[in-house]
Amino acid sequence: MALAASEAEFAPVALRLRDETEVTLRAVRPQDGDMLQTAIRGLSSESRYSRFFSHMRELTPQLLERATNPEGERELQLVAIVPADAGEVIVGGARYAGTEGSKDCEFAIAVADEWHGRGLARQLLEALMRTACERGFERMEGYILASNAAMLGLAKRLGFERVPSPEGPAVALVRRDLATLV
Fold first, then answer.
1. Each residue of 100-137: b (16+ CB within 10 Å) or e?
2. This model's pTM is above 0.85
């Protein structure tokens, strides 16, 4: 079976979290659809809303297709995997998508509720930033609910600055130059 472009360019990495738990970070695969959908359904309604700005309970078939088949160099979808009784489960995911006609990309992250506070979101965002920089993106930005203090704090610690958001005061826009990663 041929590897997807993102899978060929992002080799699996073992991550050690704050509590010494090990997770595998890898590019999403087309066959991860069921596992990804299960992970989304397992998020609390608050976590789903924080990620999608919507009360969706699961991904639509179109969103699931897009999530498991990112577009080459312009998109990357990473998943954090741990072993489970039935094989493995996704405990977190991170994605960036390039902005058409620019060297900017937008990120989004979701972490299973029981995995919050272990440093997984930080490692996901750092991996996205490094890979985006390696692929020639110059700036990364993300939309974060203004009430999501944990994610806003993480973004600030990683060098993102808050800028005026076209979405209004309920949604923060954070932005970071990637040139300093080189």
1. eeeebbbbbbbbbeebeebbbbbbbbebbbebbbebeb
2. yes
